[in-house]
Amino acid sequence: MIKYKVLSILLVIIYFIQTLCVSFGGIGADSLSYFGIAADLPTPETNLFPLGYPILLRFFKGVLDDYFWASKILNCLFTVSILLFSYLKKFYFRETVLLFTGKTFFFVFFGAMSEGPFIFLLYFLFYFLHQIFSKDLGLYQNAVWASLILIGMFMMRYSGIYIYLSILLYCFLMYFRIRKKIYFKALIGFTILSGLGIMGYLLFNFFHFGSFTGENLRGEPAEMLPLYLLRDLLGVANAIDPFIGIKPASNSMGSIIFQCLILVIDICIFIYFLHFYKKAKKSPIYYFHILLWVMAGVYAFSLLVSGWYQQIEEMSVRLMAASNVCLFFSFLILYFQNESSDKLILRIGCLFLVFLTLYNVKDPGNYLENKNKIQPQMVKFRHKKYLYNDEKNRVTTTIYYFPIIDKTLKYPHTNNQKGKLKESIAGTINPQIKWLKYDTVKDRSTVLYTSQLKF
C-alpha cells in the first residue's frame, strides 16, 4: 500500500504544478464565462451555465482575490479530498489512485472548468450509491446524501440531468430483479428526492431568467456534416479508453486516419475490459456495476444526441468525462477483485501518468510570467465592457523536430496563440469585461481588443 501512498502524493504535486508550466494556465473560453458569472454574483445576468461552480469561484476569490488562484486551489482541494477520503474510509484506495493516472481526472482537474467539481461530486455519488448496494445499515441516510450530491452535480453542469435519467432507466430495467432487495426503497427514495431538487432548480431558473437551462441563449447547432458525425462517434467510442484521448483539431485525412487508429485501440481495450465486466456476476455488488454501466451509456448517448440539437463542442474527453470515469472505476474494482498482482495495471498507470504530463507540457510556458505582463496594463481598461480577440489571424506555430527520422512538424497550438493568451489572461484578471465570440458591438469604444494589450 505504501507505493500507492507515495504515488498519491506525487499526483497532488503534478496536478498542482502542471497548469503553471503552460502558457495559458488552463484557462479557456468557458472559464471566462464562469468567471464572468462569478463576478456578477449575487445578481447573475445569465443562466447559460448553472450557478454552482461560479459560487465556488466567487467564494475562493473572496479569500485569494484572484480568479486564477481560486480555480487552482479548488482543483487542489478536489484532488486532495478524494484521495484522503478514499484512504481514510478505505473506499477502493488503490483504484482511486489509479483513476488519477487516467486521462479524465488529469484533464478535468487541470483547468478552470465545471467538469472538475462535477466529477468530484460524481466520485462521492459512487460512494453513497455503493453504500446503498453493499450496506444494510444507514440506507436512507445514504440515499439522502446521494440525492444532495446529484442535485449538486446538476448545479455544476446541466448534463447532470443525464445521470439522473440513467438512474431512472436503471430502476425501470432492473425493477423485477431488485424490487425485493433491501435497498430498493432507499434507491427509489433517492430518485424522488434528487428529482425534486433538480426540478426545483429548473423552476428557479425559469422564474428568475425566463428559461430552464439558458436554451434561448444557445446558438443553432453546426451543420451535421458526415465528417462531424464521424468525429462525434469516434469521441463517444473513446469514452472506454482510460488513458489515450488525443484528438487533433484538424479534419485532414491524416487526422481522421489517426483517430481511426485510436478507435482500434479503444475496441481492444473494450474487449479487455469486457473480460472483467463479465466477472461482475460473481461480485456481491453486481447491481452497482450495472448501474455504473447504465450511467456511462445513457450519459454518452444523451450528450451525443443533445449535441445534434444545440451548439456545444464535439464529443471529446471533456464531454465524455463522466462516462469514462464510470467505466474505468468499475473495471478497476473488478480487476483488483480478480487479479492477484497489481504490477501490470500499476505500471501502465504510471507510464501514462508520465505520458499525460509530458504531452500536456509539450509546448511549455510560464503562465504567471504571462499574467504579470498583462496585469499592469488592465488598470487603464477598467471602463471597458467587452473583450474581443482581434488577433485570430496572427498564428504562432510550434516546430517539433524528430531526430531519428530527421523530420520537422509544425503545429499551431490553439491555446498558445498570442490573441488567445491575452484574451484568457485579461478575462481572468477582470471578468466583468465580458468576452465576445464575435465582434458584433457597434460602439467599439466599449470593447477591449487584444491588440491593445502588449505581450
UniProtKB/TrEMBL annotation:
The keyword Membrane applies. The chain crosses the membrane at residues 7-27, 67-85, 105-129, 149-175, 182-204, 256-274, 286-309, 315-337, 344-361. It comes from the Bacteria. This is Glycosyltransferase RgtA/B/C/D-like domain-containing protein. Keywords: Membrane, Transmembrane, Transmembrane helix.
